[in-house]
Structure formats: C-alpha cells, structure tokens
Amino acid sequence: MPFPSANTLHPVTLPDGTVHKANVFLNAAIKHSNWEIGDYTYANDFDPPDDPEAWAMRLAPYLFPSAQDRIIIGKFGQFAHGIQFITDGANHAREGFSTFPFAIHDLDRFLTYAATLRPGRDIRIGHDVWIGTGARILAGAQIGNGVIVGAGAVVSGIVPDYAIVAGNRATVQRMRFDDATIAALNEVAWWDWDIERILENEAAIVGADIGALMRAAAA
User: Fold this and answer.
1) Is the pTM of this model over 0.85?
2) Which residues are marked as active site?
C-alpha cells in the first residue's frame, strides 16, 4: 500500500484492513480560518470525535470564531492523546477587582467581551515536533523544529529547536543533538522535500545519519 497522501483524513490502516479512526492528518480534519497546519501532521486520540470537524474544538477549545490569534503548525507533527492548545480566548480580563466574565452571561453584551481582553498571541509549532500525552501548549508558545514535549508538560514561551522539554512549567531537560547537527538539520529541511524523496532517505532521517542526509540534500 502506498504512503498516504497529505490530505488523507485517516492515514493509518491496521493489518486486518481496519481504518484506524483515532488517527487523523490534521489538515484534512480541521477547516478553521485560525489554524494553519503543515502536511502529514497527525493527532491521535483514544476517544476521537465522531465528526472530523470537531478535532479543532477538541484540540483548541478556546479558539472561538471571533479570535484574533492563530495556531500555526509545521509539517510532520505528532500529537498524542489529550493534548490541548490553550489560546488567549481562555483568559479573563484581570485589570479590575474581579475576573468574572459578566458579559458572556448577558446575550446583549456577549460579543463585547472579547474587546476587554488583550490581543491574542499566536501559538507556533515547528516541523517534526512530538507532543506527548496530556501536554498543554499555552498562548504565545513558540516551539522550534524537532522538539519533544514530555507527557503532561505545560509549555509557554520559546522552546529552541531540538530541545526536550518537560514539567509544569516546562523547562529544557536536554538538547537532542549538538549545535552543528541542529544547524545542519535546519539547513537540510528534509520536511520540505516531496514525500517520495523523504521515503527514499527515511533510513538516514530516522537513523540520525547526518552525513547521508546532507549528501542526499546536495544530490
């Protein structure tokens, strides 16, 4: 069976021929103007929504239609069960004596509430990022290429390329590779190759053979 195209909704077929509906390529599932999703980025959930369009709400429950902020995700992301993006729509105004959102409980004033909040901050996720089970990515987070986010982590701020982060709030536990290798990987940018070329060089990519990968990029 050929590798699935990037616009396949359910890209995993089990050995018995069953389509694995818990796994989706997100750019085939999410049609939302505040999302920008690269090819082959997938999410997996043990309790997937019946309606594919509900993946947007599952992953980012506070990204309302009137939101100003966006979620921008690179290619080949891997998102585990239970992760959520906590966008600025989750916030309450906090300059006054109370943070209670009175306006959202009053139909005549409901649409005025967003104007009381600070401008939304985009969440940006690089290419080839693995986000572990139950992680929370907070508004304004900037996660670099090749990052691994540990299960249950709460991520904010800037995460450098190829870092491993964990904890609440998440901190860098270690870097996956040395500076020279990270620079070479970003220069090669294999995620921008067509899928046939990527599959031809899969052994070098998953086997961490930077020499072979650089030779392939130069070919």
Assistant:
1) yes
2) 92
